[in-house]
Amino acid sequence: MSGGVDAVKMKGGIVPRIEGIIPVTRDATTLSPPERLYVPLIQHIGKATLPLVEVGEYVQKGQVIGDVDALVTAPVHAPVSGRVIAIEERPHPSGSTCDTVVIENDFAERLHPSIVQGASKTDELAGSQIHVIARKAGISGMGGAGFPLHTKIAGAAGKVKMLLINGCECEPVESNDDILMSMFPHRVVEGARLLYRAVGLHDATICVEEDKGQAIQALTGYIGNADDIRLLVLPTLYPQGCERMIIKAADNYEVPRSCYPIDRGYMVNNVSTVAALYDACKEGMPLIERFVTVTGSIVQTPAVYSVRIGTPFSHLISRCGILTDSVAKIVSGGSMMGIAQFSQEAPVIKTVTCLLLMSEAEARLDRSTNCIRCGRCTRVCPMRLNPCLLNFYADAKNYEELEAQCVDSCVECGSCSYCCPARLPLLQKIKLMKFELTKHRQSIRMRQRGH
Ligand code: SF4
Ligand code: SF4
């Protein structure tokens, strides 16, 4: 095991104030599935799946209910057994809407016959078989990004030299990865072993922040003297969970802004993703359940829940004990990078890591004042950007300068907004500008082609 002294500290970063809202319970509560589950046909980056079931059809737990023939996609599965009562457009945690399969739960938990539990000897699986299982199980990045795992494996073949398993929470208020590592170190370590074989390597490094003592102890105990899994303890700093920061910490290498990590031989996957790979290879179980942190000052006991995919947020909220009459704002994904929800009926999907529930007072937006040129945003930016300047060019809609200032390389961590004394919505503006810049480039290309 390597200690924090070996890890290279990233540039910038913050230590946010999270007292009182970080879960203190050390295990996950299994939430019983609701009467109706809402399974969106897209839960990943890539092409949306098409429904493979019809209204009125009976489905079994683990059955594929949506798929499409495309490289970048991931099938979706029924999280419970029951009857399909609708396929309709419904709220999605991304903040938009999406075609969704609505299943009325019969609470029989009938498993689909394709799922043969406990049948596989995982150490006998070849890399190509693990790749196929990752697709069949519909595994996509569970740290929030949602990139299909099988696509990532295919892209890594022959390119990857270092596999990093990310056990740093994506958001400071989250504990789902911490609890997963503490409770199920074997799923994480064996999942890492499966993944390194799938990409043609012989080892992997699991990265954990130094404040996750119980997880470190559990992983250390399970790894024992094995030399194929290295445990690297990193300083607790946000956004340590960002893949470029993990690479810097583990290998003292900064991936150039213009490159993807895989272009330089690095593959980073979340601990939940590799645990899901283990479940799929060992138990034949597709990705139909995940750990979700539910927190906020109005939550009686912030905690981690094991939740079926398709469970509406309203069901989760009704079970977690709210201290006020109503929840004024729901943020899916945490305080720094999360997305505010317009409906409590949006469901938990494969990429939902956390629900942050806010009171009326917390939900009120602070009034911004003028930039006082304090430079704090520049000091904390892990990508060495100048958010103050990006804000200035965003207001001026100066696309050329935004491009010259590398706005595209912003990893949207929100550290700049968090520390800005003028309460400027820096992250929001930068995100908007990235979107507008993409449209601007498209319109230039269209003009050049004479459209
Ligand atoms: S500019 Fe982007 S990467 Fe830099 S601190 Fe702000 S949100 Fe994070
Ligand atoms: S932190 Fe805010 S006030 Fe300070 S320089 Fe950056 S934008 Fe201006």
Bound molecules: iron/sulfur cluster
Rg is 22 Å
- Give the fraction of residues assigned to helices: 25-40%
- Counting DSSP H or I runs of 4 or more residues, the number of helices is 14
- From the N-terminal CA to the C-terminal CA, the straight-line distance is 59 Å
In percent terms, what proportion of residues is strand?
15-25%
* Top CATH class of the domain at 122-283: Alpha Beta
Structural class: alpha/beta
User: What gross morphology would you assign?
Assistant: globular
- How would a crystallographer describe the biggest sheet? 6 strands, mixed
Biggest sheet strand order reads 1-14-13-17-15-16
CATH topology of the domain at 122-283: Rossmann fold
The unreliable regions are none
CATH architecture of the domain at 122-283: 3-Layer(aba) Sandwich
In CATH terms, the superfamily of the domain at 122-283 is: NADH-ubiquinone oxidoreductase 51kDa subunit
Number of strands: 17
- Overall average residue pLDDT: 92
Structural account:
The chain has a 6-stranded mixed beta sheet, sandwiched between helices. Strands 2-8-7-4 form a 4-stranded antiparallel beta sheet, with no helix packed on it. Strands 11-10-9-12 form a 4-stranded parallel beta sheet, sandwiched between helices. The chain is an alpha/beta fold. It starts with 27 loop residues before the first strand and ends with a helix. It is built from 14 helices and 17 strands. Among the domains are: 122-283, NADH-ubiquinone oxidoreductase 51kDa subunit (Rossmann fold, 3-Layer(aba) Sandwich); 376-448, no CATH class. It has helices at residues 127-136, 149-156, 176-183, 185-198, 213-223, 243-251, 271-283, 313-319, 360-363, 376-380, 387-395, 399-404, 415-419, 426-448, and strands at 28-30, 36-40, 50-51, 58-59, 64-67, 76-77, 82-91, 97-105, 162-166, 204-209, 229-234, 266-270, 289-295, 303-308, 329-332, 339-340, 354-358. Bound molecules: iron/sulfur cluster (2 copies). One iron/sulfur cluster is lined by residues 371-377, 387-388, 391, 420-422, 424.
